[in-house]
Write a structure and sequence with these properties.
six-stranded mixed beta sheet, Cytotoxic_necrot_fac-like_cat, alpha+beta, globular, hydrolase activity, 255 residues, single chain, Cu_polyphenol_OxRdtase, seven-stranded mixed beta sheet, CNF1/YfiH-like putative cysteine hydrolases, 16 strands
Amino acid sequence: MITVSTISSLHKIPAIFTCFPTLIAAESTRHGGVSPAPFASLNLGINTADDPSNVNENRRRFFEAIGAQTSQFASSHQVHGTEILYATEAGRFEGYDALITDKPGLLIGVTVADCVPILIYDCEHQAVAAIHAGWRGTVGGIVRETLSSMQQQFGTSAEQCYAYVGTCIDECSFEVGPEVAEQFEPELKCVDVETGKGYIDLKRANTKQLTAFGIPPVQIGVSPFSTVLNNDEFFSYRAEQGQTGRMLAVIGVRN
């Protein structure tokens, strides 16, 4: 089942959230921007070699398309860790790979180009989370830790949560060495018997953390897209040897 509906060339809205009119939730594509190759074209990543004026214009276009402004946005320079920020105001922060907030009108988000973006909405307490999960964050349980932080900060319960596991590298493309593969449970990895290479399913690994917290599977949407297999639609750091742009996945409750 397709869990993402296309609204414009600039972004996709997770279908799991479309029944909540007060919620803004979207992930960007690589289309509709002004950046030249190799960042073509909607590069939203600040920490790239792209001209900052291009990134600023791309961000303006993206936020306009989702009915918001860049001045409403809180994000962080991500470090592939498990630190979580309770965001109370817009701005650019440092060292966090997940953000949570219950402030109306404040959007939070993460940048990705193969790693997994996870968006969570607590419809009872009107609280949200945006998570960046690479393999290190996944192993560190960043989804689990974020949900625990929401529980402590807002009183979040699993039954009232809706979640989206966004577009990222697919299992067939995410080849890892044995030192990485051994950190994942057997059900989350496979080995090519001919080559001996290991592959990790990051979508499934992070979905498992959502269900382990108690979120009902019917309240979890998973992107059917891959940054590698659908590289014409999304940026992939691995497929493009690091010379590429970044997408944003954002979420917030309207004023």
